[in-house]
Specification:
- The protein has about 325 residues and is α+β, with helices and mostly antiparallel strands.
- Helix 3 packs antiparallel against helix 4.
- The radius of gyration is 37 Å and the shape is rod-shaped.
- The protein has two domains: about 140 residues, no CATH class; about 160 residues, Aminopeptidase (3-Layer(aba) Sandwich), CATH 3.40.630.30.
- The chain contains ten helices and eight strands.
- Strands 1, 2, 3, 4, 5, 6, 7 and 8 form an eight-stranded mixed beta sheet that branches.
Amino acid sequence: MGMNMALRDHPTLVKPRIAPSAVGQRGLLRLRRCVARLEDELYQMDRRVLFLLLLALEVAIFWVDLNTEPTLIVAPYYLVPIIFSAWFLERRITYLLLTLAVLARVYAYWDMFPKTTHFLYWHNLLTTACAYSLVEVLIWRVKQLVTRLALHADYLQQRGRNVGRRRRLQATIRRAVPADAAAILRLIALGAEDGAFSRNALYEARQQELAVLITHSITEGNGTRDLWQGGRTSVPMEYWVSEIDGVVAGYIMVIGVDAKKDADRELHAIAVAHSHRGIGIGSALTSFFCAHFKQRRLIVACKPRSRMMTMMERRGFRQYASAQGYSLLEKLP
């Protein structure tokens, strides 16, 4: 007896207990899986087969209703085929099953109480029809709510993926170094081929000149620009690149509007390599420009009614002037 007590009281021999909440969560998870599996099978089932099964179920309930004692209430069981039909089948089929269920229930009532007054027959007909119709409408509303919630959940999930992708792309953006000059020059040439930049960038002499200017701007942080109101001046100039797997996939050129170092900033150029288009690099670079220089007045020049103009307007930019065939947009800090 003493040995048994010692073994029982030993802490290492006590059988661990599973928390009731954990058991409930496991059971609920299994139930959800079973319901989801059943729902998938019903959705994949042929509509005509499912209708015939529900009709057969309704006939079986009607037979039981006719052959049972009045003390046994069968009326609620007619709701089973109506609920399944309202969830998985078309409305016209649900209307048919509901009408048959109401008529079957009224006939069963008449068979049980053949000497009842006409008022009670009509009362039974109306109450049964109202009750079954109310359940039918409730199921439709729940189905609509579930569908909306599922669509909203898909939207939030997709939005979460997009946010995660944008963050990953934002992490690829860095300040350009002199070694990036050749890659930036190639992107400028691609932009010239697409018509976004001047085709002068395709000529070898101009490319050599641009290579020197880009390297100088990256190293010194300034360069010379043509002003929108006319003339030329030296302004702050920065290049930012998006590097993916060691390859410069896109770049932006950010310059000052005038010679003041702490003044406004203009998104002067943006380009993305053909091999990296369609994954959000251009949008990420634009968002980086808006976030990194958000304490300044931001300016961007776009072709009127262009995709770039639409994208910038979604980010809060508004047109304030036009010059040289471009719409000048601004965003205040």
